[in-house]
Write a structure and sequence with these properties.
124 residues; mainly alpha; two-stranded antiparallel sheet; 4 helices; globular; disordered N terminus
Length: 124
């Protein structure tokens, strides 16, 4: 219930134009900065993530929670902004570590399963 209320509050703040920067808690040792891939700013992530027809605040929350907005984030078999597993490789049309491609596939997963899909539930 607390996560639901936090998501609603985040949605209200974003709708009102309040800018919320990612927290330091989103950084994890599994995140890897590689040449050509750096952590996206909140504004950069929003430009990529919010072009799709899903709840922008929820999608931003999931990406921040899963990867700290780092396109090269890895945690075991899970990769990219939305930490997609290899079971979704058949949906990829490019590099899983490309922020645009990872977001496109995450949107397809969202359409199939919703925001409460798998580990994403912990980010809500």
């Amino acid at each position: 219930m607390r996560r639901l209320l936090a998501g609603v509050a985040l949605g209200i703040l974003l709708t009102c134009g309040v800018r919320i920067e990612p927290s330091a808690a989103t950084e994890a040792s599994t995140h890897v900065d590689e040449p050509g891939y750096q952590t996206l700013s909140w504004a950069e992530a929003r430009e990529i993530i919010c072009v799709y027809d899903w709840s922008c605040p929820i999608a931003m929350s999931i990406a921040e929670c899963e990867s700290g907005f780092l396109p090269t984030a890895r945690n075991g078999k899970y990769r990219g902004l939305f930490q997609l597993g290899p079971e979704y490789d058949d949906l990829l049309q490019g590099d899983v570590y490309d922020a645009f491609e990872n977001t496109r596939v995450a949107y397809e997963v969202y359409l199939r399963w919703g925001a409460s899909f798998g580990a994403w539930r912990a980010c809500l």
